[in-house]
Design goal:
The chain has 281 residues and is of the alpha+beta class. It is built from eleven helices and eight strands.
Length: 281
């Protein structure tokens, strides 16, 4: 038996390939939240329809997936348990959670806190507003689409210029809505505006009908450690914009004060890792 087989408990390359395919199917279903049929999954994963059905049956048998009426697939109860463990381990510190609850309570809108995890800017936690509109894909652990998120703009704008440029150079600038900034030069201009104003806006750039405002909080070293954000349906945003801006800035200032005074300590991986940047395309 090879060293590779020993390490994986006797699993063969074929078995490991099957596992990788199964995980890919599971991830696709989780990402699209009950929207995909077996054929959709087959096409997106690059698998034959027969292989896809085999993997789906296996995942359903172990409660990782369920099949909904109409032949669409969604995550099952085992996935919920996994999600709970991930959120418990990777979630924000208690002090940040308290600040987030205050922001949520004062604005009555969906409030988010983001921070660095393993070198990437990550959505750590959020509290949905009473009249919230679901923003697809934006769940705990989300790290993509930095060019279209207010939280990412707030953080990137306050990084040292060379570090900001390193991350921006890796962004794909894919258009998510008609308002998404897709030109790197225009994005750098936007980051300059964020630096001047002290807050960042998402003007329906990530999702149609949703506007966001975010403010960054920094540690003792002056580097941005994360951001607080609220998302608001566009029709409610206009009449309350200044209040929303004021509240996210207050939340960020509170977190920054705790960090600088040593009353809030972040885990070791809560910092950008520029040398090994993994900003996703």
């Amino acid at each position: 038996m090879s060293a590779s087989s020993d390490h994986f408990g006797g699993k063969t390359p074929s078995t490991l390939s099957t596992l990788a395919r199964g995980l890919a199917v599971f991830a696709l279903v989780a990402e699209h939240g009950g929207e995909l049929t077996a054929r959709d999954i087959s096409e997106r994963a690059g698998l034959s329809l027969g292989t896809t059905y085999h993997l789906l049956r296996t995942l359903i048998a172990d409660d990782y997936l369920i099949r909904r009426p109409g032949g669409r697939y969604d995550v099952g109860t085992r996935a919920a348990v996994l999600s709970w463990h991930v959120q418990r381990r990777a979630g924000p510190e208690p002090e940040l959670s308290i600040i987030l609850k205050g922001l949520h309570s004062r604005t009555k809108e969906t409030a988010y806190v983001s921070g660095w995890r393993r070198g990437e800017l990550t959505l750590l936690h959020y509290l949905a507003g009473p009249q919230a509109i679901t923003v697809g894909r934006l769940e705990v652990g989300f790290r993509q689409s930095l060019h279209a998120r207010a939280s990412a703009k707030a953080v990137l704008a306050h990084l040292p210029k060379e570090h900001c440029a390193e991350i921006v150079d890796r962004l794909p600038f894919e258009p998510l809505t008609p308002n998404t900034i897709t030109d790197p030069e225009a994005f750098h201009v936007e980051l300059g505006r964020v630096r001047r104003l002290g807050y960042a806006l998402d003007d329906e750039e990530f999702a149609r009908g949703i506007k966001c405002v975010a403010a960054v909080f920094s540690g003792r070293d002056g580097l941005p450690a994360g951001a607080f954000t609220i998302s608001v349906p566009a029709e409610r945003f206009a009449g309350n914009e200044q209040m929303f801006i004021r509240e996210v800035i207050l939340a960020a200032q509170t977190a920054g004060t705790l960090l600088r005074e040593g009353r809030l300590t972040l885990p070791p991986d809560s910092a950008p890792d520029f040398k090994y940047s993994k900003t996703r395309r």
